[in-house]
Amino acid sequence: MNKFIVSTKYGSIIGYVKNNKVFQIDLSNSIEEEYHDSYTADFYFKIKEYIKGNDVLNEIPYEIFFKNDFEKKVLLALKNVRFGNVVSYKGLAILAGYPNAARAVGTIMAKNRIPLIFPCHRVIKSNGEVGKYGGGESLKKFLLEIEGVVIKGDKVISCNKL
């Protein structure tokens, strides 16, 4: 297992790579020293390119084992929420085929093992508030803003909302 670290002004993105695929990403509130080795360099530079505002997350190979069908359907529906778009928890539940499961969708977002690859930062509250995020609300706002989403205070005021 190899890792890479990409730091932003709001925290760090720590990726773990095995068999040439990302299998876990941790988000840290602390700003850690950037790191990559020859094995993780492609992943590191792809995340750096994303941080510059480029839509490249779908180019990163990943490996995930879904706990159950519900998690699989929700996370695969989340993959369809494109760069610069947001969706509410309820909206994602509907996209996944479970219109009454907004709270359960929230639980899956909180336990997402590969944030960014499965872009849970694009999931917001129905009232337009950004909401919580494993890497902190400041990092979530930063990620949305680099995708062109306009945020004022804690609310999304302009984007391609699904």
Short description:
The protein has 162 residues and is an alpha/beta fold. Helices cover 30% and strands 23% of the residues.
Q: What profile does the largest beta sheet have?
A: 3 strands, antiparallel
The strand line-up of the biggest sheet is 1-2-3
Terminal CA distance reads 37 Å
Q: What series of H and E elements makes up the topology?
A: EEEHHEHHEHEEE
Gyration radius from CA atoms, angstroms: 15 Å
Helix content: 25-40%
Q: Proportion of β residues?
A: 15-25%
Helix/strand class: alpha/beta
* Average of per-residue pLDDT values: 95
General form: globular
Number of helices: 5
Structure, described:
With 162 residues, the chain is α/β, with parallel strands linked by helices. Strand 2 and strand 3 (21-28) form a beta hairpin. The chain has helices at 41-51, 69-79, 89-95, 102-110, 137-146, and strands at 2-8, 11-18, 21-28, 85-88, 123-124, 150-152, 155-158, 160-161. The chain contains 5 helices and 8 strands, in the order E-E-E-H-H-E-H-H-E-H-E-E-E. A 3-stranded antiparallel β-sheet has the order 1-2-3, covered by helices on one side. A 3-stranded parallel β-sheet has the order 5-4-8. The chain is globular. Helix 3 (89-95) crosses helix 4 (102-110).
Annotate the secondary structure layout.
Elements: E1 2-8, E2 11-18, E3 21-28, H1 41-51, H2 69-79, E4 85-88, H3 89-95, H4 102-110, E5 123-124, H5 137-146, E6 150-152, E7 155-158, E8 160-161
Parallel strand pairs: 4-5, 4-8
Antiparallel strand pairs: 1-2, 2-3, 6-7
Helix pairs in contact: 3-4
